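1st attempt posting a full record on here, be nice pls
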Amino acid sequence: MALKLARTALALGAAVSLTAVPLPALAQNVAVVNGTPVPVARADAMLREVARPGQPNSPQLQQQVREELVKREVLAQAAISKGLATDPGVKQQLKLAEQGVLIRALIADFRKTSPVTDADLQARYDQLKKQFGDKEYHARHILVPSEDTAKDIIAKLKGGAKFADLAKQYSKDPGSAQNGGDLDWSPANAYVPEFADALQKLQKGQYSQTPVKTQFGYHVLELDDVRDAQIPPLADVKPQLVQQMQEEKLQGFIEGLEKKAKIQ
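the predicted structure (as C-alpha cells):
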C-alpha cells in the first residue's frame, strides 16, 4: 500500500511540474528558458546539422541537442543582458553569420531546382570520349635543352644504345627520367600539340628521327605500344561527373548574379 501511495505521489508531482508550462508550449518547444521558448524547429535544425550519416535519431541524441540549445539560450541571454548585442563588432559578426546561412540556403535551393539531368550527363560523357580519342599511346621521351644534344642522342640510338639508358643519363624531365623516360599510357591529346603530332606518326617500336621542339625544350620520342582507348563506362565515372557539372552550374549561377548586380 505504501509503495502504491508513493507512486501516486510521484505521478502527481510530475503532473504539477508539467502544468507549470502550458501544454501548447510543450508541443512547440523543447524548453522555455527564462520565459523564452526554444522551439522544436530549432532542435530539428541542429539534429540535421550534427547527425552523422547512418546515425539513428535516438532519444539520447535528442536530449544532447536539447541540453546544448538550453545552454546556448542561457549564454545568449547573458550576453544580451550585458549589452553585447549592440557592440559594433558583434553586430558585424552576426551579419556575416546571417549571410552565411542565407548563402547556404540559396546554394541548396539551386542544387535542388537545377539538377544535372541524365541528358546533360550523357552529353558531357560523349564529349569527353571524343576529346580523349580512340587510341592510347605508351611512350617514352628524353627531354634536353638543345637541338644538338637531341641529335647526338638520336645518333647514339642509331648506334645501338638503349633508349631507357639514355633517358636516365640525359633527360631533364624529373617525372620520367629515372624511369627510362616512361610516360605510361596516355591519349595523344594529353601532350602539347607538337609532341602529340610526332607521337602519332611513329609506329610501334620506332623512335623519332629528328628532335621534336616544344615549349619545354627538345624531345626524342619512342613509341612502345598502341592500344584502343581504355575509357571507363559512364556508370563508373557518373558520381565524379555529376559533382563536376554541379559545381560548374553553381559557378555559372553565381557569376550570373554578380554580372546582374549593380556594384558601385
